[in-house]
Amino acid sequence: MKTHPCDLQEHLSTILDSVADGVFTVDGDMRITWFNQAAERITGFTREEALGQRCCEIFRSSICFSECPVQKAMDSGNNVETREIDILDRHNREIPISVSASVLRNSKGEPVGGVETFRDLSRIHALQREVTEKHRFQDMVSRNPAMRKLFDVLPDIAASQATVLLQGDSGTGKELFALALHNLSPRSKNPLVILNCGALPEQLLEAEIFGARKGAYTGATEDRPGRLQQAEGGTLFLDEIGDLPLPLQVKLLRVLENREYQPLGARKPRKANVRFVAATHQNLESMVEQKLFRQDLYFRLNVVPLRIPSLRERVEDIPLLLDLALDRFNAIYGKKLRGFTPETMSLLLDHTYPGNVRELLNLVERAVILCRTDTIDPSHLPGNFFPHTAPRDVQKRHHVPSEQQLRKILAACNGNHTAAAKQLGINRTTLWRWLNRLSATP
Q1: Tens digit of each residue's pLDDT (9 = 90 or more) over 105-134
Q2: Do residue 162 and residue 302 come from a single domain?
Q3: Which of 118, 193, 389, 405 has its CA 20 to 30 A from that of 222?
Q4: Burial of 66: CB neighbours in 10 Å, binned 0-12, 13-18, 19+
């Protein structure tokens, strides 16, 4: 017994209205010919309002007139794979969606329009933000246990007046820790003043720290307040304290001991109501043994020592930092890049980051500037990022990540296979197959 066409159409309508993803079809003029219930829910437009309208009038995306997925599928005759875009709903709210598009053909195989499926990503993005916020502390993020311990004790340290010595490799974020200590302290309403002790020659550095009176040296044509005076009531952050010349170490020690200092050319000392935070990437204990740093000053600075882990010690933070860096530079450069290809993410996770977080930020900024698509691929990384393989060759190569790379990605995702598969741009079955294949390899 043959089924009546009306029954078939009603059955098809029931099926399409039952799926969670939005589905719509267009004719050759890009006018909407079908609009399911999920499409109504996501866009806020009813089926009656959408039918007959050009899809650009309903979806109002920035790519509607340049890279419309349905138009690209119809022009090329090929499917357009899943990509993320933003649309405006009926109430002009920005909705992130993932879209896929195909050519719509009749029973004879002739193209008669296009079909697009799309999924609302708002909940996923909200969960991602929630995860990020969960691991955020002041202007820093981390899920690393050692970093979380530092975050835990920082409010107590900030509430004290104790001098803090921040130790860690260059680029680990010591200045961010100094900023957090100041912002969490009772001195937060007063200035945080920063000075890099290795940036100036000794004579200028002395005037920069302690200040100078008019005529104290050639060129001193007026009174010049030093950083100590500028930080009055607040915090003075002395970065790269290991570069401070020995004669100035003596003068700084006096400030720490007596809370007094004397500007160059001044007749009387001044009181210093300042909280000190110092930082260095050098081993001060070793410098003390070599007579390059005063032991008494080291003891005065080392009241509360905090060691900040290098990025290679906290690989689980790399995806978090990459996402934050991408958001930051998208905003700065007015772009809407969606993320990194699986191969790029694998390379970034496998990198040792001798420059730590600063290097990671520089890599992402460069990639955002150079990227002309919506996804960062290996060609956007520096040439010296590939020690044995030219970038062009890397782009052509598509292989299963090594066991070490997979383990790093799993560690970064706290063992969550679904999150790891998403990070790699594959499904869970493929990830399971890769892991089984690697574990079976002798």
Answers
A1: 888 888 889 999 998 888 777 766 665 566
A2: yes
A3: 193
A4: exposed
